[in-house]
Amino acid sequence: MAEVRPFRGLRFDPEVVGDLGRVLAPPYDVVDQEREAALRDSSPFNAVWVERGAYAEGDVDRYPGSARTLVGWRESGALVRDTAPSFYLVEDEFTHEGRQVTRTELMGLAQLTPWSEGLVLPHENTRGGPKRDRLDLMRAVNANLSPLMALYSDAGGAVKRAVEEGRPSTSDQVTAADGNKFRVSVITGDGADAVARTVSSAGSLYVADGHHRYETALDFRAEAKAAGWSGNAIDHVMVSLVSIEDEGLISLPYHRMLSGLSAEASGRFARQMDVYFESERIDVGSATVIDVLERFWERSKSAKGPILAVLDKEDVGTMRFLRPRGGREEFVGLMHGRSAAWSKLSPCVFEDVLLRPSLGMNQLEAEAAGFFSYPSSAEEAVTSVREGSRDYAVLLDGVSLRGMTEASEQGERLPPKSTFFYPKLPTGIVFNTLEGDI
């Protein structure tokens, strides 16, 4: 069982910072330069000031700016540490496909354990660049600034009941700049103790989003202990826990774009499609991007196995829907995963059956070489091919929660950017200091 504990979080004081919605920011990996500038302009206390830092004279990188900002907020009273160990219950209200959805998140600390122990399970591979960035930031600020998202099973509803019993009668209402609404309740005392006991008996945690941050926390702990760091805060990482049974838990796909391919590589890509997939060609020449995407989603919902759709800049009027001709046996010698779950997931089929044989490299290598990128927006992928800036757009049908957990339990690590849990968790609701004890 993965141990989960309450903690004394650092939270913004609205009497100092004003509207709490203005201090929230998306996580670091989805903020482009334009969005970053808008967030900085929205408030001098927006979380992006510590997530991204700010240069001052003499700085060689942005991390010292993050540290100065965090210290300044604490000294000014903008950030105040809670006096009692707490769980932070966040009810995230948002719109998806035209309907209102609520996802319930429980923010606490999870005991850091190596992946090999099986208490906390990954499902994706990580990349070196983001881990170096997160580690440099942790070294500077000595804190968890954004939570990772972890899933747990609550089929019997025990955790839900404990949370409801411990929930206080008051809560903070926060509306972010994108319109998402958050109701934040703080569970302390006996209620927090009961929640800790119940969620810690729920079994393994599955990391849904934040693999880089988890591995960075392990590396930071090892460094700190070697340096004689005191206190048990570094033995934990801030997590936002979501029940797998939560109706607001939405998993969307990242898609794939290819560019700069040689004629030989493009030829191999086309041959792989012809040999290993049943292909349905659909005329989308005059269709709007929305119409194109609706056709894809309708087919993917009715498919029993993985489905991919390919648009080629040489024939933008045609979309090819691909379904594997057979099961795992069809891909003998191609699949790099060991489990049956691997061959049922579209990101794995794409990498092993289309990408590797065509380019002779995996996703990380193709990305480093400039051939490959991962848009979460299907509209961006389709538009890029229609405008000729990409050779191919490959739309994926996504990874189901069952497929993700099966792969995790079998020790599989899916290709990077296999899942996109919507919406991303915001940064700025609470921070966790790694100094001293919890």
Tally of individual domains: 2
What's the helical proportion of residues? Answer: 25-40%
The total count of strands amounts to: 21
CATH homologous group name of the largest domain:
Conserved hypothetical protein from pyrococcus furiosus pfu- 392566-001, ParB domain
Uncertain regions spanning at least 5 consecutive residues = none
Description:
With 438 residues, the protein is α+β, with helices and mostly antiparallel strands. It has 2 domains: 4-249 and 423-433, Conserved hypothetical protein from pyrococcus furiosus pfu- 392566-001, ParB domain, CATH 3.90.1530; 254-418, no CATH class. The chain has helices spanning 14-17, 33-42, 48-51, 63-76, 128-141, 158-166, 189-200, 211-226, 263-276, 289-302, 346-359, 363-368, 378-386, 401-409; strands at residues 4-5, 10-12, 79-81, 87-96, 99-111, 120-121, 143-144, 148-152, 172-175, 181-187, 205-209, 236-243, 250-252, 256-258, 277-283, 308-312, 315-324, 372-373, 392-396, 420-422, 432-433. A hairpin with a 5-residue loop joins strand 9 (172-175) and strand 10. Helix 6 runs antiparallel to helix 7 (189-200) and helix 10 packs across helix 13. The model has no long low-confidence stretch (mean pLDDT 92).
